[in-house]
TrEMBL record:
Region (Disordered): 1-31, 750-778
Major location (coarse): nucleus
Keywords tagged on the record: Coiled coil, mRNA transport, Nuclear pore complex, Nucleus, Protein transport, Translocation, Transport
Lineage, highest ranks first: Eukaryota, Viridiplantae, Streptophyta, Embryophyta, Tracheophyta
Keyword presence, ATP-binding: no
GO cellular component: nuclear pore
Protein name: Nuclear pore complex protein
Family matches, as Pfam families: Nup88
MF terms in GO: structural constituent of nuclear pore
InterPro entries: Nucleoporin_Nup88, NUP88/NUP82, WD40_repeat_dom_sf
Coiled-coil zones: 660-708
GO BP terms: mRNA export from nucleus; protein import into nucleus; ribosomal large subunit export from nucleus; ribosomal small subunit export from nucleus
Length: 812
């Protein structure tokens, strides 16, 4: 087992410098840009396709050579020229169904030679760096660089990540899955074939990982199934309680595990969500009657307070926080436990793994975590073309295993730089899990959350399709999941979410998800499928969504996806069923013309004629008899048919009139509704225009307010405002009163000392009066001195308070 972290910082550590700001000279003038529909862009054409090797030939996932920064830039990797194309796009222009792309596009060239075939690109959260991954190499390209001598070309700084670990010739370790962390712009998560999950911080060290988790799902020597110890994929959790600190690990036999907590050092999280987790641990953990739950919650609270020190300072600080940064911290006497395997649960019994293997064919190939409302959905894809959809039936809690100390890497000031630990499974209770158990009996006991089976979807892939399956969620409709495979793209929409429906008060029966084929790359049964080399899900702020695909022949496909009516399928089907039933009822009750009449009169079968029929004349007896017989047959057939038609038309005339009147009334109602919709549309457009103008004016006022002096000063708290008001009153009233009293006493003293009574008292030598006046003078002097001291002391305090307030305003 390998621990790559040392106790001191190694010499020669590679540390990437911050990416330079984009140069104005790199931008193409707007006058030179031409805008094409994205599918007609000159970059995407069969003429530019080359005979390069297929990236999916040996990969574990379908190749994806396209990326989107979430705004207005689309990236496409050119496998032939080994360069990256940056295309500026406009979503929903000129109409909501299309996407415009600028030509010419920028060409981003790596500043180092790429000696491997790239089969996946992925962009980080803020769009500053892009991942170039292949079977034989891993690079990160910073998307802002220096201009090249070639037109529309930028040379970008490119670095190699983990080359000493993954691509060493002496110890070749394959990378199974690579993904950017959703709460950091510089952290990469990598799962490798040596059953180790590593997190790299590109802003500190690109060669050595920041955190290492050695996965041991079973005890050594106790596994009879090799697939149980082979990981294949991982997925980061979503923005829900402890899910955001969780990593879901999928193994080849379909078993799922969780490691929690896993937090990149320096990642940023929302303050209110961290506070919610802290309060939840104190409410449901510390107050539990189970000593094990109290111990687990105490460890979680200690970890939260050390990782987010703002939780301890929140009582004394009245400032409002919006985001907090995770500080480097690891428990010194415990390692994070590997929770699992996650077991299936239902109302009475749990689902055995043997039953699961009988339903899903092959081996597990990929997994996806999706947060939909209050439900955490875990999707597992199998090589046989099945998707296993499960919801977490309980909340995730952090679990540590005592007695397994981690290895730490610290600097000279004992600051943690990295950590490595062994993640072993903890012995769990194998009793039957039921949904009707009270939450207080299972909370904070260290049990892994069970899985509630939602559905198993069979994609019915052709036999010629490979087992490579990738999944992604719709950016606008979280209930929709896109599944990408060699046969094309399928859409799976979830119509039943147990905890979300329960929270909203809906009591709906469990419904199966709807499956729709979005794009098929199998042109026929006789030909082999042509897998996609790139796929993206785009969306804008107006509620529009698109699917963009790149074929092996370098053709671009753009498909607009429905968003507002995706979840209305069941309601629409119910309405259609009701309408169909009503129509059938009306048709059965009011039949206008029977089918017998609509088919026309029956064919007349003439009686067999004699051979000498043509020789008969109409005046003869035989001729008259034959004509009479013919007339009788025609009368019975056609005249009776005409009478039936006349009778039925006369009988059904009122019903027909009623139906016509009803149709006319419905037409009038629809016309009225259309007029009302047009009037509302005009009002809505006016309201939108007013809202846009108001928004513009508010933005302008906000900019003006921000430019005012002192706009960024922190306002005083209520206690500080009360104290300042008291000081103002004191300085404005009481100090003035003391000053006037002192001046009056000084004037009286001077008048008394220079008055003629004082002179006469000296001349006459009256000792009693002199003694009395001397006492009064001494009292006045002492009072004056006291008042002077009080005045000077108060003045000094006021000046100190004013200077402190002034310094605080300047610093804020």
């Amino acid at each position: 087992m390998r621990f790559a972290l040392d106790l001191a910082e190694p010499d020669g550590r590679q540390s990437p410098a911050p990416a330079p700001a984009p140069s104005p000279s790199n931008s193409t003038p707007k006058a030179e840009l031409q805008w094409f529909p994205l599918q007609n862009h000159p970059l995407f054409s069969s003429a530019t396709a080359t005979a390069a090797s297929t990236p999916a030939a040996a990969g574990r996932m379908p190749p994806n050579l396209m990326a989107w920064d979430g705004a207005s830039r689309l990236y496409s990797w050119d496998s032939n020229k080994k360069c990256l194309h940056r295309i500026s796009i406009r979503l929903g222009e000129p109409d909501p169904t299309s996407i415009l792309a600028a030509f010419p596009s920028k060409v981003l060239q790596a500043d180092m030679q790429l000696s491997f075939e790239v089969n996946k690109i992925s962009i980080n959260r803020n769009g500053s760096a892009l991942l170039l991954a292949g079977l034989e190499g891993l690079r990160v390209m910073y998307l802002y660089g220096r201009s090249s001598t070639e037109e529309n070309t930028i040379i970008c700084r490119t670095v190699s990540v983990g080359s000493e670990i993954y691509f060493n010739r002496n110890n070749f370790i394959r990378t199974l899955q690579i993904s950017w962390h959703p709460y950091s712009d510089t952290h990469l998560g990598i799962l490798s074939s040596d059953s180790v999950f590593r997190i790299f911080d590109l802003s500190v060290d690109i060669g050595q990982p920041e955190q290492e988790y050695y996965l041991q799902p079973v005890e050594p020597g106790n596994s009879s199934n090799a697939a149980a110890i082979c990981p294949v994929d991982f997925s980061f959790g979503g923005d829900h309680l402890w899910d955001k600190f969780s990593v879901f690990i999928l193994f080849s036999d379909g078993s799922s595990y969780i490691i929690c907590p896993v937090v990149p050092f320096g990642s940023v999280y929302k303050w209110d969500l961290i506070l919610e987790m802290y309060n939840d641990a104190q409410t449901f953990g510390l107050k539990s009657s189970n000593s094990k739950a109290v111990n687990n919650s105490n460890m979680a609270i200690s970890w939260l307070e050390a990782t987010f020190p703002e939780l301890v300072r929140q009582a004394g600080d009245g400032a409002q926080l919006y985001g907090v940064k995770a500080q480097p911290f690891v428990l010194f006497d415990a390692s994070v436990a590997l929770q699992g395997p996650l077991r299936k649960v239902c109302h009475s019994v749990t689902e055995d793994s043997e039953i699961q293997r009988g339903i899903c064919e092959g081996r597990a190939v990929s997994c996806l975590y999706n947060l939909v409302g209050k439900d955490s959905v875990l999707v597992t894809a199998w090589s046989g073309g099945q998707l296993q959809l499960d919801a977490l039936a309980d909340e995730i809690q952090p679990v540590w295993k005592m007695g397994i100390a981690p290895r730490l890497c610290v600097d000279s000031s004992d600051q943690i730089l990295g950590a490595a630990m062994i993640c072993e499974t903890a012995p769990s209770d194998r009793s039957v899990l039921k949904l009707d158990q009270p939450p207080h009996l299972t909370a904070w006991l260290g049990h892994p959350p069970p899985l509630l089976r939602l559905a198993i979807v069979d994609l019915a892939l052709p036999d010629k399709c490979s087992s490579l399956i990738a999944m992604m969620t719709d950016p606008l409709v979280p209930e929709r999941i896109f599944c990408v495979h060699a046969g094309g793209i399928d859409s799976i929409v979830l119509h039943f979410l147990p905890f979300t429906n329960q929270t909203s008060g809906k009591e709906e029966p469990m419904r199966t998800p709807s499956v729709l084929s979005v794009l098929s790359t199998c042109p026929g049964d006789s030909s082999s499928p042509s897998p996609l080399h790139g796929f993206l899900a785009l969306s804008d702020s107006f509620g529009s969504s698109w699917i963009v695909g790149l074929t092996s022949s370098n053709d671009c496909i753009v498909l607009q996806m429905d968003t507002w009516n995706v979840l209305l399928t069941d309601a629409i089907e119910k309405v259609r069923e009701t309408a169909t039933a009503d129509e059938l009822k009306e048709t059965e009750t009011h039949t206008i013309i029977s089918k017998e009449l609509l088919s026309g009169p029956k064919a007349v079968l003439l009686p067999p004629s004699a051979p000498n029929l043509r020789s008969l004349t109409a005046d003869s007896i035989e001729g008259r008899s034959m004509l009479h017989q013919y007339f009788k047959l025609f009368r019975e057939n056609y005249v009776e048919y005409a009478h039936k038609v006349y009778f039925e038309l006369q009988h059904h005339a009122p019903n027909l009139k009623k139906i016509i009147d009803k149709q006319h009334s419905r037409v009038r109602e629809m016309q009225q509704k259309l007029l009302e919709v047009e009037r509302k549309q005009e009002k809505i457009e006016e309201r939108i225009d007013r809202a846009v103008k108001l928004h513009s004016s508010l933005e302008e006022r906000l900019q003006n307010l921000r430019s005012l002096p002192g706009s960024h000063k922190k306002p005083l708290s209520k206690a500080e405002r009360d104290f300042k008001l008291e000081l103002d009153n004191y300085s404005g009233l009481e100090l003035d009163a003391l000053q006037s009293s002192i001046e009056a006493l000084n004037a009286r003293l001077k008048r008394h000392m220079h008055s003629p009574q004082a002179d006469s008292s000296k001349k006459t030598g009256r000792k009693g009066n002199n003694r009395m006046q001397g006492d009064e003078i001494s009292e006045l002097k002492s009072s004056l001195e006291k008042l002077s001291l009080i005045n000077s002391e108060n003045s000094r305090k006021v000046k100190l308070v004013e200077s402190a307030l002034r310094n605080r305003e300047i610093t804020d």
